[in-house]
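Below is our example:

___
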Amino acid sequence: MKSKPHGCMTCDHFLNKWNCVGLGCKAGAGVENCAAWEPKKPRHKFRAQPTETDGIKFSSKKEAAYYSQLKLRVRAGETLFFLRQVPFHLPGGVRYVVDFVEFLADGTVAFVDVKGMATPMYTAKKKMVESLYPITIKEV
């Protein structure tokens, strides 16, 4: 059977926000009544997959994995404790949120941002934070 532009190969449904996932559509059944249709899942701009660990939602698997590592470091005694999603207020009402602030056993504080891809906006905000505050943000 020939495919219609923006349409399903097996029925008359129009593909807009919907994706055909199999055969068995009945022409004219209506999207809400058709068992072979399901909505598309929204995808992150940089393909990061939101993940949940310990009941906490993270914006990526990499950030969740870093959180798990931090918990192990706290248990081992390398890190005293850590904070998540700490905001820095910048001029012009701009806000920069660092992923983790780690308080290490030797008395130092580490600011960590878990990044899969450094965007120009991230780079600009990071430079602004580092110029206004006496800190260095480590990228992981």
Q: What stands out?
A: Residues 1-7, 15-23 have pLDDT under 50 and may be disordered.
